[in-house]
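wait is this the right file?? whatever heres the structure
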Protein backbone atom coordinates (compact mmCIF):
# COMPACT_ATOMS: atom_id res chain seq x y z
CA UNK A 1 0.00 0.00 0.00
CA UNK A 2 1.27 3.50 -0.77
CA UNK A 3 2.53 5.62 2.11
CA UNK A 4 -0.01 8.40 1.64
CA UNK A 5 -2.76 5.82 1.31
CA UNK A 6 -1.80 4.27 4.64
CA UNK A 7 -2.18 7.70 6.26
CA UNK A 8 -5.81 7.96 5.18
CA UNK A 9 -8.32 7.31 7.89
CA UNK A 10 -11.96 6.41 8.11
CA UNK A 11 -14.12 4.29 5.88
CA UNK A 12 -13.81 6.55 2.84
CA UNK A 13 -10.05 6.77 3.17
CA UNK A 14 -9.58 3.01 3.47
CA UNK A 15 -11.81 2.22 0.50
CA UNK A 16 -10.27 5.01 -1.60
CA UNK A 17 -6.76 3.78 -0.73
CA UNK A 18 -7.63 0.24 -1.78
CA UNK A 19 -9.11 1.44 -5.08
CA UNK A 20 -6.14 3.74 -5.70
CA UNK A 21 -3.65 0.91 -5.11
CA UNK A 22 -5.57 -1.41 -7.46
CA UNK A 23 -5.83 1.27 -10.17
CA UNK A 24 -2.14 2.11 -9.81
CA UNK A 25 -1.10 -1.54 -10.03
CA UNK A 26 -3.29 -2.07 -13.12
CA UNK A 27 -2.12 1.26 -14.64
CA UNK A 28 -5.75 2.42 -14.90
CA UNK A 29 -5.70 5.63 -12.87
CA UNK A 30 -7.12 7.86 -15.69
CA UNK A 31 -9.94 5.39 -16.47
CA UNK A 32 -10.85 4.99 -12.79
CA UNK A 33 -10.78 8.76 -12.28
CA UNK A 34 -13.09 9.33 -15.27
CA UNK A 35 -15.55 6.60 -14.18
CA UNK A 36 -15.64 7.83 -10.57
CA UNK A 37 -16.31 11.39 -11.70
CA UNK A 38 -19.09 10.16 -13.99
CA UNK A 39 -20.71 8.22 -11.15
CA UNK A 40 -20.41 11.24 -8.84
CA UNK A 41 -22.12 13.41 -11.47
CA UNK A 42 -24.97 10.90 -11.58
CA UNK A 43 -25.14 10.88 -7.79
CA UNK A 44 -25.22 14.68 -7.55
CA UNK A 45 -27.85 14.93 -10.28
CA UNK A 46 -30.35 12.44 -8.91
CA UNK A 47 -32.30 12.89 -5.69
CA UNK A 48 -33.55 9.30 -5.97
CA UNK A 49 -30.04 7.85 -6.27
CA UNK A 50 -28.90 10.05 -3.39
CA UNK A 51 -31.79 8.82 -1.26
CA UNK A 52 -30.98 5.20 -2.13
CA UNK A 53 -27.31 5.62 -1.24
CA UNK A 54 -27.91 7.47 2.03
CA UNK A 55 -31.00 5.75 3.42
CA UNK A 56 -30.60 2.80 5.79
CA UNK A 57 -34.17 1.77 4.95
CA UNK A 58 -33.14 0.06 1.70
CA UNK A 59 -31.82 -3.48 2.04
CA UNK A 60 -28.36 -4.46 0.89
CA UNK A 61 -29.85 -6.40 -2.03
CA UNK A 62 -31.94 -3.38 -3.09
CA UNK A 63 -28.91 -1.10 -3.00
CA UNK A 64 -26.69 -3.57 -4.87
CA UNK A 65 -29.35 -4.13 -7.55
CA UNK A 66 -30.14 -0.44 -7.99
CA UNK A 67 -26.52 0.72 -8.04
CA UNK A 68 -25.70 -2.14 -10.41
CA UNK A 69 -28.49 -0.96 -12.71
CA UNK A 70 -27.19 2.62 -12.64
CA UNK A 71 -23.66 1.40 -13.37
CA UNK A 72 -24.86 -0.77 -16.26
CA UNK A 73 -26.94 2.04 -17.74
CA UNK A 74 -23.99 4.47 -17.46
CA UNK A 75 -21.65 1.80 -18.88
CA UNK A 76 -19.35 2.04 -15.86
CA UNK A 77 -17.66 -1.34 -15.76
CA UNK A 78 -14.34 -2.84 -14.80
CA UNK A 79 -12.60 -1.75 -11.64
CA UNK A 80 -15.01 1.07 -10.72
CA UNK A 81 -18.11 -1.01 -11.48
CA UNK A 82 -16.87 -3.86 -9.29
CA UNK A 83 -15.72 -1.44 -6.60
CA UNK A 84 -19.12 0.29 -6.38
CA UNK A 85 -20.88 -3.06 -6.15
CA UNK A 86 -18.59 -4.16 -3.30
CA UNK A 87 -19.15 -0.85 -1.52
CA UNK A 88 -22.92 -1.34 -1.77
CA UNK A 89 -22.65 -5.00 -0.70
CA UNK A 90 -20.69 -3.93 2.39
CA UNK A 91 -23.36 -1.31 3.31
CA UNK A 92 -20.95 1.57 2.73
CA UNK A 93 -22.81 3.27 -0.13
CA UNK A 94 -23.44 6.31 2.08
CA UNK A 95 -19.69 7.07 1.96
CA UNK A 96 -19.36 7.05 -1.85
CA UNK A 97 -18.99 10.85 -2.24
CA UNK A 98 -16.29 10.92 0.46
CA UNK A 99 -14.56 7.96 -1.20
CA UNK A 100 -14.41 9.90 -4.46
CA UNK A 101 -12.93 12.92 -2.70
CA UNK A 102 -10.34 10.77 -0.92
CA UNK A 103 -9.45 9.01 -4.19
CA UNK A 104 -9.01 12.33 -6.01
CA UNK A 105 -6.82 13.60 -3.18
CA UNK A 106 -4.59 10.52 -3.45
CA UNK A 107 -4.47 10.93 -7.21
CA UNK A 108 -3.48 14.60 -6.89
CA UNK A 109 -0.70 13.69 -4.43
CA UNK A 110 0.50 11.00 -6.83
CA UNK A 111 0.65 13.55 -9.66
CA UNK A 112 2.36 16.16 -7.47
CA UNK A 113 -0.72 18.38 -7.53
CA UNK A 114 -2.64 20.13 -4.81
CA UNK A 115 -6.42 19.73 -4.70
CA UNK A 116 -8.57 22.84 -4.46
CA UNK A 117 -12.25 22.55 -3.63
CA UNK A 118 -14.01 25.44 -5.32
CA UNK A 119 -17.65 26.32 -4.75
CA UNK A 120 -19.12 28.81 -7.21
CA UNK A 121 -22.54 30.33 -7.79
CA UNK A 122 -22.57 29.39 -11.50
CA UNK A 123 -20.43 27.22 -13.74
CA UNK A 124 -17.06 28.69 -14.69
CA UNK A 125 -16.05 29.21 -18.29
CA UNK A 126 -12.92 27.38 -19.51
CA UNK A 127 -10.94 30.64 -19.51
CA UNK A 128 -11.98 31.31 -15.90
CA UNK A 129 -10.95 27.77 -14.93
CA UNK A 130 -7.54 28.30 -16.51
CA UNK A 131 -7.10 31.68 -14.81
CA UNK A 132 -8.13 30.28 -11.41
CA UNK A 133 -5.69 27.36 -11.78
CA UNK A 134 -2.87 29.76 -12.65
CA UNK A 135 -3.66 32.04 -9.70
CA UNK A 136 -3.80 29.13 -7.27
CA UNK A 137 -0.58 27.65 -8.69
CA UNK A 138 1.22 30.92 -7.99
CA UNK A 139 0.02 30.82 -4.37
CA UNK A 140 0.47 27.09 -3.69
CA UNK A 141 3.57 26.52 -5.80
CA UNK A 142 2.19 23.34 -7.41
CA UNK A 143 -0.21 22.44 -10.16
CA UNK A 144 -3.76 22.56 -8.83
CA UNK A 145 -6.57 20.10 -9.50
CA UNK A 146 -9.91 21.91 -9.22
CA UNK A 147 -12.91 20.12 -7.74
CA UNK A 148 -15.71 22.48 -8.62
CA UNK A 149 -19.19 22.38 -7.13
CA UNK A 150 -22.03 24.78 -7.83
CA UNK A 151 -24.08 26.42 -5.07
CA UNK A 152 -26.46 29.10 -6.41
CA UNK A 153 -27.06 30.37 -2.85
CA UNK A 154 -23.61 32.02 -2.98
CA UNK A 155 -25.18 34.60 -5.34
CA UNK A 156 -21.76 35.41 -6.79
CA UNK A 157 -18.05 35.01 -6.09
CA UNK A 158 -16.57 31.75 -4.83
CA UNK A 159 -15.24 29.80 -1.89
CA UNK A 160 -11.83 28.17 -2.40
CA UNK A 161 -10.39 25.58 -0.02
CA UNK A 162 -6.79 24.44 -0.47
CA UNK A 163 -5.45 22.31 2.34
CA UNK A 164 -6.28 24.06 5.60
CA UNK A 165 -6.73 27.46 3.91
CA UNK A 166 -10.09 28.85 2.86
CA UNK A 167 -10.83 32.00 0.92
CA UNK A 168 -14.47 33.10 0.85
CA UNK A 169 -15.24 35.87 -1.63
CA UNK A 170 -18.89 34.93 -2.04
CA UNK A 171 -21.51 37.64 -2.25
CA UNK A 172 -23.59 35.77 0.34
CA UNK A 173 -20.79 36.07 2.93
CA UNK A 174 -20.21 39.74 2.12
CA UNK A 175 -23.93 40.47 2.54
CA UNK A 176 -24.00 38.61 5.87
CA UNK A 177 -20.99 40.66 7.06
CA UNK A 178 -22.73 43.85 6.00
CA UNK A 179 -25.91 42.78 7.82
CA UNK A 180 -23.93 42.16 11.02
CA UNK A 181 -22.14 45.50 10.69
CA UNK A 182 -25.48 47.30 10.27
CA UNK A 183 -26.88 45.59 13.37
CA UNK A 184 -23.92 46.81 15.44
CA UNK A 185 -24.43 50.38 14.25
CA UNK A 186 -28.19 50.40 14.87
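ok assuming it is, sequence goes like this
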Amino acid sequence: MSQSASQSSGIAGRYASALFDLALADKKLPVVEKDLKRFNTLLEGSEDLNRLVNSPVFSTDDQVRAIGGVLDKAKITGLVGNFMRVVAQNRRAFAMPQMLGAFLKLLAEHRGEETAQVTVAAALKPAQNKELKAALKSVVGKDVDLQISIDPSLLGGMIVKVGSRQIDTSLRTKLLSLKLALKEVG
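The beta strands are 113-120, 143-150, 158-162, 165-168. so i think its the right one actually
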